[in-house]
């Protein structure tokens, strides 16, 4: 894999699958196991959905930028939006009784469980950046996030 790959896309939900597949494929090329690459892809997917829906408010005239970086055993993905952003510090816990059956509100929870580090940054006047990092250990095993949510076929 090249050390850096950058995408600039309109804020359209139709691009979510493309970015997910790209993240998963690049993670596999770096050497992550299939299950870990799927987890990384799912974390990136959630970050992209948040950027499109909550960051850019589904405004197709605003873009998202997704950067994939490989740096000395670290796979890093940056997802940037151009919107007013969202308040990541005040998201509800999807495991609390009143939230168990909600159909939304799990994205940040998934991101934090599928990668080693999740960081949110406001970019003054330029939206929000989410940074996802997953460390690759030479033994072929990545740290944490070993549980997989299986993708349904069809």
The poorly predicted ranges are 139-154
Number of helices: 3
Instruction: Tell me the overall shape.
Output: globular
Give me the side-by-side strand order of the main sheet: 1-2-3-5-4
How many beta-strand elements? Answer: 5
What percent strand? 25-35%
DSSP helix fraction: 25-40%
Distance between the termini: 29 Å
Mean pLDDT comes to 82
Structural class: alpha+beta
What is the alpha-carbon Rg in Å? 15 Å
How would a textbook summarize the main sheet? 5 strands, antiparallel
Order of helices and strands: EHHEEHEE
Write up this protein.
The chain is of the alpha+beta class and 154 residues long. Helices cover 29% and strands 25% of the residues. It has helices spanning 16-30, 34-55, 107-114; strands spanning 4-10, 63-71, 74-80, 117-123, 127-135. It has a 5-stranded antiparallel beta sheet, covered by helices on one side. The chain starts with a strand and ends in a 19-residue tail after the last strand. The model is unreliable at 139-154 (pLDDT under 50).
């Amino acid at each position: 894999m090249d050390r850096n790959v950058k995408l600039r896309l309109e804020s359209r939900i139709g691009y979510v699958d493309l970015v997910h597949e790209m993240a998963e494929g690049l993670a596999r090329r770096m050497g992550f196991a299939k299950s870990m690459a799927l987890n990384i892809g799912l974390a990136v997917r959630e970050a992209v959905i948040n950027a499109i829906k909550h960051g850019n408010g589904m405004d197709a005239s605003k873009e998202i930028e997704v950067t994939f970086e490989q740096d000395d055993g670290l796979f890093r993905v940056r997802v940037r939006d151009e919107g007013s952003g969202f308040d990541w510090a005040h998201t509800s816990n999807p495991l609390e009784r009143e939230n168990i059956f909600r159909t939304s509100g799990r994205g940040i929870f998934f991101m934090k469980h599928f990668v080693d580090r999740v960081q949110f940054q406001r970019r003054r006047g330029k939206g929000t950046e989410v940074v996802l990092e997953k460390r690759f250990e030479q033994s072929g095993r990545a740290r944490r996030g070993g549980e997989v949510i299986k993708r349904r076929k069809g």
